Amino acid sequence: MTRTIDANPYPLAFARASTALLIIDMQRDFVEPGGFGAMLGNDVNQLRVAIAPLQRLLAAARAADLFILHTREGHRPDLSDAPPAKLARGGGDTGIGDRGPMGRIRIRGEPGHDIIPELYPLTGEPVIDKPGKGSFCQTDLELILKNRGIKTLIVCGVTTEVCVHTTVREANDRGFECVVPADCAASYFPEFHEVALRMIQAQGGIFGWVSDADRVIAALA
Ligand code: C5J
Question: What is the rounded average pLDDT for all residues in the chain?
Fold first, then answer.
């Protein structure tokens, strides 16, 4: 059955069976006070505003039997999958692989790399470990989505202008239709969040749609 999500720049037609909820990088090191993001001087409350709307959307998606996937940005403990350019980026004293407030920074298996308890994946919800900003780069995400017949992605998480944006662009180029519920994504920089969302929906939806949790939940019901 075809449904529509009330979205900008125009309603997005979708079918529940071919739609997935993709939650990007809701990891402790980005989102929690006392994590690496906070250590860098970021105000994590700018990200935490997305948790409550995302919890409601996640519950609605689970109730609607939607396919749900989560991503985590991070690397192998030996850093063999971390490009030297990424390791060098930032120029600070503490970076990827170093000891941070929640274990080794961006390393799989460390406490800070884990997904926040409020949005923890259930058994059966794939978790995609990605070494980059985009969720399709060097992962099996595309294969998993194609095998499930997924055509539409509801993309949420952090940060709007980095990993959410990169993922939406990658997905769009691969033929997926993406909608971002604005209140289910967030940035340390509110102005980047706003502009990133405007970019997605500009020019007739140049690479996607923008909606919000309430409108997506209404469409799933
Ligand atoms: C994400 C980042 N998840 N900003 N990563 O957006 O480095």
Answer: 97
Q: Which of 105, 116, 159 to mutate to test the pocket of ligand 1 (most atoms within 8 A of CB)?
A: 159
Q: Using CA of residue 19, residue 166, residue 179, residue 117, what is the dihedral sign?
A: positive
73 lines ligand 1 (CB under 6 A): yes
The 10s digit of each residue's pLDDT in 209-220 is 999 999 999 999
Atom 3 (ligand 1): residue with closest C-alpha? 163
Whether the CB-CB separation of 14 and 3 falls below 8 Å is answered with: yes
Collapsing DSSP to helix, strand or coil, 151 comes out as coil
Q: What does the alpha-carbon distance between residue 115 and residue 70 come to, in Å, rounded to a whole number?
A: 9
Q: Which residues does residue 27 pair with via DSSP β-bridges, in sequence order?
A: 115
Quick one: tokens of 90?
A: 């930032």
Cβ neighbours of 199 (radius 10 Å): 18
Q: What is the pTM of this model?
A: 0.98
119: which 2 tokens? 């949005």
Three-class SS of residue 182?
helix
Alpha-helical segments (H) within 13-124? 28-31, 36-39, 45-48, 51-63, 84-88
Q: Tens digits of per-residue pLDDT, 135-178?
A: 999 999 999 999 999 999 999 999 999 999 999 999 999 999 99
pLDDT, position 84: 96
